[in-house]
Design goal:
By secondary structure, this protein is of the alpha+beta class. The chain has eight helices and nine strands. The chain is about 30% helix and about 15% strand.
Length: about 230
């Protein structure tokens, strides 16, 4: 007789908030503050834009060295898209994440046309954005941390790594969805098919990191969910 094997509930200091529940409710009693980070668009300075395809996509370190961030705010101005919500829905539509009735194919076309015209690369869903993470990890190190755990999506595997190694070998970040400190005070987590990450900690720490890294996004309120643009 085979017994059904059920995973235990994951440690909430080590995983992304679930869909269908307010983010701050999910982390209640674990983290006081959560900032939702937009994964930025970016633009290569010297690299051939044709390299940005699955067979030849540059490494994270190559992107850090050669590309500049194009914020969502700037992309709205370039594209004529009205709001962050419309842009997010367009990005989700573009990766076939949404049901037909929620899709916005006109915005997908605006995104694609703007990227072609301006030589811009769309953010990648489900992976830590290297241009953001490089700054963020350096700022976390300035807070006195030298090591961070990197864990899988479900909280079943984790490995302790030196922060400097994440910076110098940024592709290491692609091996996990969750980064958290040994004292469980800071969590950076990315949703597997969204263009966002969450920065979670106490209010003072989150505010310092947001300001020092010029993070683009917004502070979650008591009702913000992962599917924030659909609310």
């Amino acid at each position: 007789m085979n017994e059904e094997r059920l995973l235990p509930e994951p440690d909430r200091y080590a995983v992304c908030a679930y869909e269908g529940i307010p983010i701050k409710e999910f982390y209640q009693g674990v983290f006081d503050e959560v900032f939702l980070i937009f994964h930025p668009f970016f633009k290569p300075k010297t690299m051939d834009i044709d390299l940005f395809k699955p067979s030849s996509y540059p490494s994270n370190n190559e992107i850090i060295e050669d590309c500049e961030i194009i914020s969502w705010e700037k992309f709205l101005k370039l594209s004529g898209i009205r709001s962050f919500k419309q842009l997010d829905i367009g990005l989700q539509t573009g990766i076939l994440r949404l049901k037909e009735e929620y899709q916005d194919k006109k915005t997908v076309q605006l995104i694609e046309n703007t990227c072609i015209k301006e030589g811009i690369i769309e953010p990648v869903e489900g992976l830590f954005p290297p241009l953001v993470m490089n700054k963020l990890l350096k700022s976390i190190k300035r807070l006195g941390y030298n090591w961070m755990w990197i864990g899988d999506e479900f909280g079943t595997e984790r490995k302790l790594e030196y922060i400097d190694d994440f910076v110098s070998h940024s592709d290491m970040l692609n091996k996990g969805k969750n980064l958290f400190t040994h004292n469980h005070n800071i969590l950076i987590t990315t949703h597997w098919d969204r263009h966002l990450s969450l920065l979670c900690s106490d209010k003072k720490t989150v505010e310092y990191l947001v300001e020092s890294c010029s993070l683009e996004g917004f502070y979650c309120n008591k009702s913000t969910q992962i599917n924030w643009s659909m609310q």
